[in-house]
Each structure stands twice: as C-alpha cells, then as structure tokens.
Amino acid sequence: MRTVRRARTLVAAATVGLLALPTAGPASAAPAGTPRALALSSSVSPPVITAGQTATQTITMSRAAPVGGMDVFVYGDARYNDFTSGRVHLPAGATSVSFPIRVGSYAVPTTVALHAQVSGRSLQRVAEVVVRPPTDQAVAELRFTPRVALANTWTTGVVVLRSPAPQGGVTVDVRRNTSYGPVVIMPLAVTVPAGSTTATFDAWVDSISEAEIIRPSAHLGASAAATELVVLPNRFDLGPGYARRGAVTEAAIGIGAAPNPDGVTIALTTTTEGVTVPPSVFVPPGSPGTTFPVTVSESASVSEPASITATWNGTSVTESLVIG
Question: What pTM did the predictor assign?
C-alpha cells in the first residue's frame, strides 16, 4: 500500500517563508516525521503607529531555538536598524521573541517593510508597519550649546517640541546634513520623555579641515527645525563658502584655541566688485569664533570666486567665495 505524506502548513499573521535549517556534517536522511524546514514569521503591534512612537515586533519560529540560542538578523529603515542594532536573540528552547522597534519619521503615511534572516539563509520580508505623521505634535526648535565648536570637542544639542510628549515619549529624527562636509557625530534620533517638551543629546565635532557652517535639522512627521552649528579647526581660519547674487550669506571665522577672555576683533576686506563684507567682526569672549555676513549684489560676476581676507594678531588668511 502507498503512503502519502502531507506537509503541514504554518499559518502566521505576517508573510511566512521557509528556511532550511543549517546542518552539521554530511547530509543524512531525516527520521520519518521530522520537518526539514524552519518557518519564520513576524507580526507588529500595533500595525499602524504615529511617527515618533514605538511598536512591538514579535518574531516566531516553528521550532525551538537550539542549545546556545539563535540570532535572527533584522532589517528595516535606517532608524529601525539603528534602534534594533540589526539583530535579536532567541534563547535556547524559545520559539519567539518580542522587542520594541522604532522607524523613521515620515511626512506622509508610509509603509516600512521589515525583513529578517537566519545565518546563511536568504533575507525575507516578514512584516510591515505603517507610519503616519502626527496631527497634534511638532518640532519647535533645535539648538546647540555651544553654537560655535572647535574640532575634537563636544557640543550639546537640544530638541524642543511644541507640546509635551505623550505616554511612551516621542522620538525625533536628527540629521546632521553633512554627507560631504565636516564630520560631526550625533545620534540618528533622540527621544523626548513623556510629559516633557525637550530632549538633549551630545554631538562630537571630529577633525575639521576648515571653518564651516553646517545646518543640522530635527524632524517629526511633516514638521522640522534647523539651526546653524559653526565648526572650526584649531587655528586662525576663515571658511570658504557659496553665495547667490542678490543675497546675503554667512561665513565662518575662528581663532582656534587661542585664549579669548575679553573678545577679539578681526579685520575683514574684499577686493571683489559687487561683494561686501563688514570692516571687522567681533568674536565674543570665551568663544573660538563666530560668523559674519557677506552681501553679493545682482551685478557680481560669477566667472570667478570672490576673495575675502581676514587679519588678526599679525596674521592674514584669504579664502574664496563661489558666486552662483
């Protein structure tokens, strides 16, 4: 008599894939009734969240994790990957694990796909979470203290909400906006605790080659706030820049780690027609630098950069300003 074996089907709340279990040593025939594949599934609760809020993800396997447990590698958007560190661990004997997740803050309703895999096997989509922008919360301000920072020093950022964060807190995305500029290391997100309107974070100003103004920003749903952060090398330096005709832009200038108990005045000049700078700029006491305005007229030439010279303490530095 012929015997027909029917494979059992696992029903899961999320997309389910079959992953063959890793084997040790030469392959051998499995005893009758032993499953040859591992079913991996996942669900998210709640499946729809407001930007800045936390959800709980559960990953389930069709059989218990072996001795020593098993790592499951998880992937989503950049915020998810940072928050989860890219993996979760199922202890020996466990068939599931639940863990908190956060995803990015989006300006429009967005579906974020969540993927998982076990070592040596293909990545598969296992779940998704829908993120909606908040209707009753927004970012009001982003600021740094100090606002002017030398290379290889810390500065403190502060994110401010328009109203107190609800239960569970609110996570605000932080963007340094320096992909091709100076290296400033800061977290990808910061959480404002429940009942509070502010959260602080540390930012490290790494090695800086020239004085520059960067513009980090904070985002929650469709709301955003940006600010200027002046970063300076440890020397007297005038930063280059870019300006449009008919506009006023800011340029960075610094004195490095030189003592500055009373403030210093730096002389400024330019010989470029159509470009105007103030005759001098004052660096406040205790600060390593500041910014000053550069005004470019509509008639300024775009064929070559403008030239600006700063003189202080017997030393002059000259930099270019590209006009567009």
Answer: 0.79
